[in-house]
């Protein structure tokens, strides 16, 4: 098939960009190296849009949460990723979590069946000379990474990203653990809770810090992304750190005592069948045997069987504020746009969002038109502004969408009212942008 644009990378951003362009009537060549003899250290399948870390798209609350607002904006713009996310939703309180395999299979089927998209299983090692979107993500193959570095004249920044373990549901002891969402949000039974008393908690933290870790000497001085910090790194910050983070017991009533536990480990459903549950916030670089030994000391997980153990991989991203223009084009080669995590956004939905915008900017350009970026008052616009100019290039770091990226609400406002004001303003701004 002859094509109008070449998209390199079939993750969330590349799949979303391809879908937007194809729906607009343009022919797309989507190159994905997995399935063509190559893979990455983090992927396990050849499916498009595979979720390699959590199965959660985070909060779906569009009234008081920036990522929930981003969900709402993507739905309004016909996002394939949100459509399949909604179709493959699993219980997770107020969050949008998905059946990991069903979701990626759904995206793969939709993209492969579209008459305007040709999915080619191939590795691309050069920057195309034709209109293109590079959406290869943080695990870009070495050959293409070298070409990008040579073109930009700057070394890419890098950070560590970690993966949490997944447990078989039937191996969890429900005589000790119980179902409950924090503060009974959502269905109130969307999480499995494993309680620890004070002695158990401090013994676990000590063993976690002392546990044998995988070494990454070739990646020395590479920082961790704060939003996906290995649990043992958090523990090293202080003995109580985990009690105010992923092991927080607040809002959870242990049915055996009627009280909140001193600390608590939560597991969230990972697939539609409810047979697999991931340990929330337990990203780790512990060696695999050490993970099994240590995590089985958690009450309720003494006989846990693991479908997947945790791990760590190195991510790279561009100095986007310096290298990309307001429509995500590479300044030195404007036929090329970048999208997804390689631009320095962090998170599944953020990656898909930048893929959607890259696709829509490309649509306008192929039509000989100009599309103004979404207003900075919207979640899409706030995230894009951060990537393309809202941060200093030398200190630029991956960022999830949050209200701190939005223009401030003028005047003095009550903190309780501010989030609602952000979301109301964003809806108005998005409606005006879509109308224009």
| Number of beta strands | 17
The number of helical runs is 12
Helical amount among residues, as a percent range? 25-40%
What is the ordering of alpha helices and beta strands? EHEEHHEEHEEHEEEEHHEEHEEHEEHHH
Which structural class should the secondary elements be placed in?
A: alpha+beta
Give the overall pLDDT as a whole number: 91
Low-confidence stretches: none
The major beta sheet can be summarized as: 6 strands, mixed
- Cα(first) to Cα(last) distance is 34 Å
Major sheet: arrangement of strands: 6-2-1-7-17-16
- Percent of residues in beta strands? 15-25%
C-alpha Rg, in Å? 22 Å
Shape: globular
Protein topology:
Layout: E1 5-8, H1 12-23, E2 28-32, E3 56-59, H2 66-76, H3 80-87, E4 89-90, E5 95-98, H4 100-113, E6 117-121, E7 132-134, H5 142-152, E8 157-163, E9 166-168, E10 178-179, E11 191-196, H6 198-210, H7 231-235, E12 263-269, E13 276-279, H8 288-295, E14 306-308, E15 311-317, H9 320-323, E16 329-330, E17 333-338, H10 348-366, H11 379-388, H12 415-435
Parallel strand pairs: 1-2, 1-7, 2-6, 7-17
Antiparallel strand pairs: 3-5, 4-5, 8-15, 9-13, 9-14, 10-11, 11-12, 12-13, 16-17
Helix pairs in contact: 1-10, 2-10, 3-4
Give a brief outline of the structure:
With 436 residues, this protein is an alpha+beta fold. The chain has helices at 12-23, 66-76, 80-87, 100-113, 142-152, 198-210, 231-235, 288-295, 320-323, 348-366, 379-388, 415-435; strands at 5-8, 28-32, 56-59, 89-90, 95-98, 117-121, 132-134, 157-163, 166-168, 178-179, 191-196, 263-269, 276-279, 306-308, 311-317, 329-330, 333-338.
């Amino acid at each position: 098939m002859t094509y109008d644009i070449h998209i390199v990378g079939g993750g969330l951003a590349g799949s979303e960009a391809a879908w937007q362009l194809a729906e607009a009537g343009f022919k797309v060549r989507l190159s994905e190296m997995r399935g063509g003899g190559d893979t990455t250290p983090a992927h396990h399948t050849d499916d498009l849009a595979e979720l390699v870390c959590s199965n959660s798209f985070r909060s779906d609350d569009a009234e008081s949460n920036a990522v929930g607002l981003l969900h709402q904006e993507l739905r309004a713009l016909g996002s394939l990723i949100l459509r399949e996310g909604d179709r493959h939703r699993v219980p997770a309180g107020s969050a949008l979590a998905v059946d990991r395999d069903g979701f990626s299979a759904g995206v793969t089927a939709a993209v492969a069946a579209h008459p305007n998209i040709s999915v080619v299983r191939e590795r691309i090692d050069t920057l195309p000379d034709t209109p293109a979107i590079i959406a290869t993500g943080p695990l870009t193959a070495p050959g293409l990474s070298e070409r990008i570095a040579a073109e930009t004249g700057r070394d890419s920044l890098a950070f560590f990203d970690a993966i949490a373990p997944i447990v078989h549901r039937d191996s969890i002891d429900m005589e000790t653990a119980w179902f409950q969402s924090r503060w009974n949000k959502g269905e109130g039974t969307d999480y499995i809770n494993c309680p620890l008393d004070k002695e158990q908690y401090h013994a676990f933290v000590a063993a976690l810090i002392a546990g044998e870790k995988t070494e990454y000497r070739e990646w020395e001085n590479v920082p961790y992304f704060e939003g996906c910090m290995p649990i043992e790194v958090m523990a090293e910050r202080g003995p109580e750190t985990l009690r105010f983070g992923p092991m927080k017991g607040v809002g959870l009533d242990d049915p055996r005592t009627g009280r909140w536990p001193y600390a608590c480990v939560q597991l969230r459903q990972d697939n539609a069948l409810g047979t697999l549950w991931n340990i929330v916030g337990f990203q780790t670089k512990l060696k695999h045997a050490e993970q099994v030994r240590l995590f089985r000391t958690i009450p309720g997980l003494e006989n846990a069987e693991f479908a997947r153990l945790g791990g760590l991989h190195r991510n790279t991203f561009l100095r986007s504020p310096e290298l990309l223009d307001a429509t995500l084009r590479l300044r030195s080669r404007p036929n090329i746009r970048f999208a997804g995590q390689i631009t320095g956004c962090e998170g599944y939905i953020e990656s898909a969002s930048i893929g959607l915008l890259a696709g829509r900017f490309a649509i306008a350009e192929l039509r000989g038109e100009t599309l103004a970026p979404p207003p900075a008052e919207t979640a899409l616009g706030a995230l894009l502004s951060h990537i393309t100019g809202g941060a200093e290039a030398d200190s630029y770091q991956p960022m999830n969408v949050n209200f701190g990226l939005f223009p401030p609400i003028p005047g003095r406002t009550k903190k309780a009212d501010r989030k609602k004001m952000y979301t109301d303003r964003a809806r108005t701004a998005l409606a005006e942008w879509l109308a224009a």
